[in-house]
């Protein structure tokens, strides 16, 4: 077969992203520099991935030292750094078992399989259905798009994967009505990321825990975006005091290196025996070295205090910004440094104007713009972000005052 001619001026990447017309080539702390020399304050952080900013020296040292020794061995052999990271995660959370993955979607796949396997191992294979909530985003695999339930991600990929029952967010009556003899688990993001920075009320999370205990269900938290210090706690479940049975994590745990994990209690993981799950690259030495380096920083005394303090000051300034521009910004959402600006104007326009002002932010559902800065931002970074958000709001506001074209 003769290869098809390729237009050298046209990308051969799948056109599944509407990419911004900038190429970021280097960064330091909360700042990045594009190939044209333009500097941007990065309040997207790779969609909450670069938790410690760009070019963090401790992460660079850990990665390069490990890269000089060995890159990959596979899970056929012992992984000392993986054992160490798993133990540290368990000691700092509710969990007693950990499984490492390459991404958040894979961590959620593991959580889904674990919940189903738990009931099958107890003699109830009919209990495989998982209740999820409208507005959720759990990943892009066939199972996780079915779990998320958003039709725009499901359309065109054949029959929706069976086993997921979705109910409205924070609808107690609908939730109770959905629980049946085939229900295995409840699965929720404590704060919806893609869904518009909607926080699940503490009373609702406590109800989920009570329902799971009453009906013998697994409670799954998707903390892929909320975890590793993003909300001012190591994981956001600590804000409510409601611990899950299974938790999927990713993004911040690798500080920019692709990795995730599924954490669970001993009981929840009891069905995951020899050969029931696996991964080629998950838990590889490079990822484990970086993960341990991230924990060195995030779990150090005072680090989470800094996140709480800087986020409080930032939110106070954002409240003033909202008061100055009520036609543009209607609400401030989220926790810690996972902040959403609910807008009265199209969020895509605001993202473009913020970029023009030298600030990178991320759009979300429900017409929200996400502010997800590195957790290491300084007072000066936060103040500069407000200046640039002010410019973006003014630019959007100016478009509202222009007379409509005849």
Question: What keyword list fits this structure?
Answer:
seven-stranded mixed beta sheet; 406 residues; alpha/beta
Please work out how many helical segments DSSP would assign: 13
The unreliable regions are none
Helical proportion?
25-40%
Describe the main β-sheet briefly.
7 strands, mixed
Mean pLDDT: 95
- Name the strands of the widest sheet in spatial order: 4-12-11-10-7-5-6
Using DSSP, what is the number of strands? 17
Radius of gyration: 22 Å
What letter string, H or E per element, gives the SSE order?
A: EEEHHHEHEHHEHEEEHEHEEHHEEHEEEH
- Overall structural class, as computed from helix and strand content, comes to alpha/beta
End-to-end span in angstroms?
55 Å
* Shape type: globular
State which percent range the strand residues make up. 15-25%
